[in-house]
Design a protein that fits this description.
The complex is a heterodimer of chains A (about 140) and B (about 375). Chain A has one helix at about 1-15; strands at about 45, 55-60, 70-75, 80-90, 95-105, 110, 120-125, 125-130, 135-140. By secondary structure, chain A is mostly beta strands. Chain A has a nine-stranded antiparallel beta sheet with strand order 1-7-8-9-2-3-4-5-6, with no helix packed on it. In chain A, strand 7 (about 120-125) and strand 8 form a beta hairpin. Chain B contains six helices and 14 strands. Chain B is an alpha+beta fold. Chain B folds into two domains: about 70-185; about 195-365, Lipid/polyisoprenoid-binding, YceI-like (Lipocalin, Beta Barrel). The chains are: A mainly beta (about 140), B alpha+beta (about 375). Chains A and B meet through helix 1, strand 2, strand 4, strand 5 and strand 9 of A and helix 2, strand 1, strand 2, strand 4 and strand 5 of B.
Chain lengths: ~140, ~375
């Protein structure tokens, strides 16, 4: 009786072994171990005219400012004014900074408060703004 | 008498002459044609021709004036256009200059902050060497902070004592430099690769896992629920790193639900939900640290704790800095499950998992500003 049971198990295992070749390996490749950044797949293209009005929130900050700057929010109005907030970390403590001003789009880019325009690129609900000290990718949001 | 005769003869002559004239007129009246002719051509210029001449002259003059005026307008337009272009170029030049000055100012501020940070670090090192206690410079520096505040709270203190007591406080009062970024004034914090800093693992952007081999097929178990922090100086030959990386073992997944359940049982996640790696040291590889490129290679030494069992572990790692000024740490090392008393999974004694797995980390850590030690 016990021998018969063992034989059944062995036969089942033997039958299952060929299935092994049907089960694909799911090992994560070494180059894919990092968490994928959501904006990595976006293909940005330069824009000279863009309806920026609405809420925008940062999803990626790069450059020197990224050391202390955590997030940015902008609300642009169609009338040419804006209000914004930045969350920065100073001495290990987060603090908000808010400001308001005017904005304008020109072929050279986005000008805030009459400053020199900076290049703006667009990709699928995102804009990328480049300045000398850093670059930010903003995602279109909604005021709910 | 003679006189009268002469009068009568004269009168008769006149009458006769008159009669002869009337007679002659009667005869030739039908043959007389009165022609009013202009003067001969050679006698003077033709006024119509003169008028035409004058008109043509005036027309030519008008044409010349028109052409001259048009040319002048063209020259005027070209000159105005040239001036406008020159002014536009001037404005662009000024804008470039302003941008350049602004960038220069930001760079100077950045360098200033960097220099200040280095001075602070040097001061800390000098203090540490002065006291002969290398491991506790921070703790030694903290006590003066408390008495420093007392003179401020007690204005009745003798003024003579204040300068001596306030001197150590001055470095702490330095205002943080600012960098302009899209109208914001951002604190300028230099990323120092060759200086001891505190790093915090970025939530949800880190991943740790293991690669395992089994009879049926190879698989990976991984999780992004990773937390931790560490203090490190990549350029420190002593490699006196400290910190820990903690992963939530209950969130490890392999892609097969039943296998995950078995894994949790084998790891005993109910009793030991965390897998911890405590960092004790970093050993740089020979020539493995490039401060300029901000890259490093070496081995991280520490204590791995799985299922409540602790073992020393070395993990070769490669370190770099990404565009967001975060430290990217990638590494892997083999590990035997049996060393941590983790039962090696086996199904029916035929489908077996190998005892040795490869544990790997893919971490993103950002500098905690103000966290220098």
């Amino acid at each position: 009786m016990r021998a018969a049971s063992t034989v059944r198990v062995v036969l089942l295992a033997a039958a299952a072994l060929p299935l092994a070749s049907c089960i694909a390996s799911n090992v994560v490749a070494e180059q894919d171990r990092m968490v994928v950044r959501p904006v990595a797949s976006l293909e940005f293209r330069p824009v000279t005219a863009l309806a920026l009005d609405g809420l925008w929130e940062s999803v990626e900050l790069t450059g020197d400012v990224a050391v202390s700057l955590r997030r940015i929010w902008y609300v642009f109005s169609a009338g040419g004014s804006y209000t914004a907030a930045a969350l920065a970390e100073v001495d290990g403590a987060p603090s908000f900074q808010t400001l308001s001003g005017t904005w304008a789009m020109s072929p050279e880019g986005l000008s805030l408060d009459g400053a020199a325009p900076v290049p703006v690129e667009e990709a699928d609900g995102h804009v990328r703004i480049s300045a000398s000290t850093g670059r930010v990718v903003l995602r279109k949001g909604a005021l709910q | 008498m003679v006189q009268k005769l002469l009068q009568w003869a004269g009168a008769l002559f006149v009458v006769g002459l008159l009669g002869a004239s009337v007679f002659a007129l009667t005869i030739v009246k039908d043959r007389i044609r009165v022609v009013v002719a202009a003067d001969e051509a050679g006698a003077g210029p033709d006024p119509m021709a003169l008028l035409r001449d004058d008109l043509q002259t005036v027309s030519r003059t008008v044409d010349e004036l028109r052409m001259a005026l048009g040319g002048n307008f063209e020259r005027l337009g070209a000159a105005l256009e040239e001036r406008a272009e020159a002014r536009h170029a001037d404005v662009q030049g000024i804008a470039r200059d302003v941008t350049s000055v602004r960038d220069g100012s930001a760079a100077v501020q950045h360098q200033l902050a960097s220099i200040l940070a280095r001075i602070e670090a040097l001061e800390v090192r000098v203090q540490a060497r002065g006291t002969g206690v290398a491991a506790a410079p921070v703790a030694a520096a903290e006590p003066p902070a408390a008495p420093v505040e007392k003179p401020v709270e007690k204005p009745v203190d003798p003024p003579a004592q204040r300068p001596a007591e306030q001197t150590p406080e001055k470095p702490a009062e330095k205002p943080a430099a600012k960098t302009g970024f899209l109208s914001f004034s951002v604190p300028t914090v230099a990323f120092r690769f060759d200086e001891r800093q505190d790093y915090v693992l970025a939530p949800d952007l880190c991943r740790v896992g293991f690669d395992a081999k089994s009879t049926l097929h190879d698989f990976t178990g991984a999780t992004s629920k990773v937390t931790g922090r560490f203090a490190a100086d990549m350029d420190d030959p002593a490699g006196a790193w400290t910190g820990e990386v903690v992963c939530d073992a209950t969130t490890l997944v392999t892609g097969v639900e039943g296998r995950d359940t078995n894994m949790y049982e084998h790891l005993d996640t109910k009793a030991h939900p965390k897998i911890t790696f405590t960092i004790t040291r970093f050993v740089p590889a020979e020539g493995g640290v490039d401060v300029g490129k901000q890259t490093a290679r070496g081995e991280i030494l520490g204590t791995m704790s799985i299922r409540g069992v602790q073992r020393e572990l070395k993990m070769p790692v490669a370190i770099e800095v990404d565009a967001s000024k975060r430290l990217v740490v990638k590494g892997q090392t083999p590990l035997k499950l049996s060393d941590y008393q983790v039962p090696v999974p086996s199904q029916l004694g035929l489908i077996n998992m190998q005892d040795e797995v490869v544990v790997w980390v893919a971490l993103l850590a950002r500098v905690q500003t103000g966290g220098k030690k």
